[in-house]
Amino acid sequence: MSTFWIGTGWKMNKTVAETRRYVADLKTRLPSELGSDYALFVIPPFTALAAAREAIGAAPVLLGAQNMHWAEAGAYTGEISAPMLKEFEVDLVELGHSERREYFGETDATINLKVKAALRHGFRPLLCVGDSAEERAAGASAEAVVRQVRLAFAGLTKADFSRCLVAYEPIWAIGESGVPASPDEAKGVHVALHAALKELGAPKVPVLYGGSVNLENAEALASEVAIDGLFVGRAAWSAEGFASLIAKVMAARKRAGLARAEVMHAIG
Ligand code: 13P
């Protein structure tokens, strides 16, 4: 079976003390056998990275950061660079989340610079792309996110792509007022993203789904062959919630007996 990714981004939530408690709790709830079939990750705020790294220890949980500047150092007040993240042995860096695009002026061009900087420093970029409600209403969801992927990944080599991840996070599906994408709708966009990635020479880049993933819809989403992982917010902000989601997904995928070979076959 191919690797299925399950991770959670905490956004602007959790102190150092809360992070320690969360990770300790999660470790007691992790399934004993993950093997290479599953990759788990948590993405705390910058201030909790050191505590998270220490608390994770040897547990099979990757650590991510929520953003990163593209420059090595310099006059960028309030920003965090790749060498700074290196000190916490961060595995992946989330880039281009729609909240960053909307509230902090991130553009496709700066995201491209950040993707390249993350790769230069040996991190896995987790590129987030998403369509707005307007784009969705106009039937332009796939077009919008494919454009974001092309611009964010412009200039990358084949070797670079082997370390990239994409998360499809419809803006209309994220957060308290979000409505989760149906597995069918998500599938349509994932198939388009896989096709675009193939065209870019990156057919193996995993595409995760994010946006109101919860205990009710996780199984159906994880059973879609074009969905390579789930990127979860609120439903995984308690260790119990995250562990329950992991267990649900594992059970669903076991039942469905999905394999990467089938995914590749399904998308041609
Ligand atoms: P929710 O799961 O809370 O909708 O958040 C999704 C998200 O933005 C993950 O990055």
Topology:
Blueprint: E1 4-9, H1 16-29, E2 38-43, H2 49-56, E3 61-65, H3 82-86, E4 92-95, H4 98-103, H5 108-120, E5 124-129, H6 133-137, H7 141-152, H8 158-161, E6 165-168, H9 183-199, E7 207-210, H10 218-222, E8 229-232, H11 239-256, H12 260-267
Parallel strand pairs: 1-2, 1-8, 2-3, 3-4, 4-5, 5-6, 6-7, 7-8
Helix pairs in contact: 1-2, 1-11, 7-9
Bound molecules: 1,3-dihydroxyacetonephosphate.
Can you tell me about this structure?
The protein is an alpha/beta fold and 268 residues long. It has one domain (4-263): Aldolase class I (TIM Barrel, Alpha-Beta Barrel). Helices cover 43% and strands 15% of the residues. It contains 12 helices and 8 strands. The protein has helices at residues 16-29, 49-56, 82-86, 98-103, 108-120, 133-137, 141-152, 158-161, 183-199, 218-222, 239-256, 260-267, and strands spanning 4-9, 38-43, 61-65, 92-95, 124-129, 165-168, 207-210, 229-232. Strand 1, helix 1 (16-29) and strand 2 (38-43) form a beta-alpha-beta unit. Helix 1 packs parallel to helix 2 (49-56) and helix 7 (141-152) runs parallel beside helix 9 (183-199). The longest helix is centred in the C-terminal third of the chain and has 18 residues, at 239-256. It is globular and about 45 Å long. It binds 1,3-dihydroxyacetonephosphate (13P). 1,3-dihydroxyacetonephosphate binds at residues 9, 97, 169, 174-175, 178, 210-213, 231-235.
